[in-house]
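dumping this here before i forget
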Amino acid sequence: MPYAAVFFTFAVYPIGYALWMAARPALYRELIADPHYLPTLLNTLIFVGVGVNVKMFLALLLSGFFMRRRWWIRALLVVFIVPWALAAVQAFISFHWILIGEQGLINRVVFELSGIEGPIWFNNRWLALGANVVAHIWKWMPFWTLIFLAARMAIPQEIYDATAIDGATGVRRFVHVTWPLLANLYLLCTLLSTLWTVGDFNTVNFVSGGAPAMSTDVLTTLGFRYAIDGANPALGVAAMVSVFPILIPVAVALMRRLQTRELQL
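structure:
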């Protein structure tokens, strides 16, 4: 009973109440009529698709680099995880000020070295959206790198020794040994990262702030604007619920893939 009460209080009730708020069809007609909604949906797909796939792929590659047993690589790993260890809000505000106008660190360094004035990053939709994606990858890639690093370290060394005797080294060892053993974990991490990235509010809110003119908003920030600035929480929930038809099939496909691989193993 205590477990059931906690589950109902913190999972069933809030989720059910949110779905009830967003159940009216008129809310979705209002969303479609809003000129900001469809561009925001596109931004969300780009932010999630590019951010998750690039982040996970680089994390997998970097986990192999950090497997090397050299003291300077271990020291570099400590520096590498600093962005993940920082509080998200402060990290993204710092990223924002690095890019802000002529006084931003990047534009200042480029000007001092070459005399070329850098772009106004948050006056261009694609530059600002790219900054959001890069900031998300920079912040969360160390976490997934550590996950893959721990998984690589759990692979018995005897397997690598046996493949080395057969002449499998380098890329062949990764393709035929490391990747098959990590594939299930990679898919599971991709699923979790997709779910978390869809709900990522801090990155866009504190890096670009939706600039210029709400053109880089994602569904979480647009829903916040509807709920708080527009005093319409039902419409804000509906904005997030509208992504379910895309997100749920992806989650189901990944879960079936995991189950299939478990049966094969």
